Amino acid sequence: MEHIKKLNINRIKDGKMELVEDFVIAEYPLTIFINGQEFITLLCSPEGLKYLTVGFLVSEGIIKNKDQIESITIDKDKGHAYVELYDKSSFTEKLFGKRTITTGCGKGTVFYNVLDSLGTKQIDSSLKVGWDKILNLSRKLNEHSTLFRETGGVHSCALCDSDDILIFYEDVGRHNSIDKIVGQAVLSDLDLSDKILISSGRISSEMIIKAIKSNIPIIVSRSAPTELSVKIAKQFNATLIGFARANRMNVYNGQERLLSK
Amino acid sequence: MEHIKKLNINRIKDGKMELVEDFVIAEYPLTIFINGQEFITLLCSPEGLKYLTVGFLVSEGIIKNKDQIESITIDKDKGHAYVELYDKSSFTEKLFGKRTITTGCGKGTVFYNVLDSLGTKQIDSSLKVGWDKILNLSRKLNEHSTLFRETGGVHSCALCDSDDILIFYEDVGRHNSIDKIVGQAVLSDLDLSDKILISSGRISSEMIIKAIKSNIPIIVSRSAPTELSVKIAKQFNATLIGFARANRMNVYNGQERLLSK
Questions:
Q1: Measured distance CA(A235)–CA(A88) in Å, rounded
Q2: Residue B256 carries which DSSP code?
Q3: What is the pLDDT of residues A130-172, one digit of tens each?
Q4: Are A117 and A206 contacting, i.e. CB atoms less than 8 angstroms apart?
Q5: Which of B96, B206, B225 sits opposite A96 (nearest CB)?
Q6: Non-local CB neighbours of A141 within 8 Å, separated by 6+ positions
Q7: Is the pLDDT of residue B102 over 60?
Q8: Complex ipTM > 0.85
Q9: Which residue, of A230, B60, B134, B233, has the fewest CB within 10 Å?
Q10: Which of B145, B140, B172 lies closest to B47 in space, CA to CA?
Q11: Of A17, A38, A250, the CB nearest to B102
Q12: Active-site hit among A44, A105, A157, A160
């Protein structure tokens, strides 16, 4: 399996060293070219590369939908993704303004410009889900996470409806797994406004901004959210749940989408 | 404690919901200005901000030592770090070439340019450390990690000599904690070539590149390394240890620095 590489390592245990075979998670550099121009290199797990490319461009605001894409070609051996957009202007500057979260505009910290870029549009969704269903989905995510069990080196993320996992990715980068989900959803015209996103990892501001940009109403983590992600959830009326494990979870915002029965 | 914010949340447990007070980890936006020009915003835990600023600039190759710094002022309320360098040229382009790992030079993937920027200089160190000392330091790191126990939202990282922890940080970002350590070491003229870096989190390529840039010979994780970080450790002759917990650890490279007694 290309996600995992076999290595000979020295294992020290109880004061003795022995040479053993072990598995480590791959970290694959994917360089995205837009209209022939080198754009960015992402370090990721080597699957769903087309989806990662599209999801990253959507999450970073470079494109809004698949109709803007003329073609995408993945050269897996080289680690290159070639994207042709119908718009032939330079996107490098656009990314710089986002990625490094810095601009020359000089009014206040640009971090808040990233928030501004979301506009004032609240999450638009009528989804309501039972408590037990959320906990059930969290359990399913955990059962799916085989790479983590084998290598300890990835985070898993799943897009779900109320009953089951629809799309699942494990990746060395937390951000990549949500970008892969967003990319797959965009390319298959999947409506995300009645879906649930579940992550094994922490929910930072960057994670929740990606989810809100795609209008996903319920974001669940088996781990902790940051305070800033809670603030952003409140601002955009997203439901944010943390520590969803076994028979319990913490609801940080948006409990009106949760049903006790 | 400003690292942690108290919130009222709804806790659902065993089918019942109750309003409780809970703690979440702060995620603080720090915007760095260089020579008056806005440069980048880092999302971090709000301590060691001066060290973070210096460590980030060193890790990203913007500066090499503290003598290049004219002054640093932190405005904690605004979340701004103002850095004056003696060199008044623009650094924005320099960062873009690194941060987004993209350049216009067009020869191969730029990721490898980042590796190239390390040069061919191997880790230069005569440090040797006993197995038991490494495991002891890993245990100490775990005991220090109070924020993690309280909020589950941070990674901890420590710079150690053979016997004890010298510098310790917990941060919402794995990269920030190593940047804070590097910054503190640079400002206090600490030689890192006989030190050990221990992290609670995974060792990705970016993490090990930062450590190698500072000539730290032994990098230890309580968690997993990626395959790429193992490759980089081999290339630069760094000692890389993973899963250092209780009575065992995996040595991925550089066992010649480890002593059984």
A1: 35
A2: G
A3: 999 999 999 999 988 876 666 677 889 999 999 999 999 999 8
A4: no
A5: B96
A6: A156, A158, A165, A168, A198, A200, A222
A7: no
A8: no
A9: B60
A10: B172
A11: A38
A12: A105
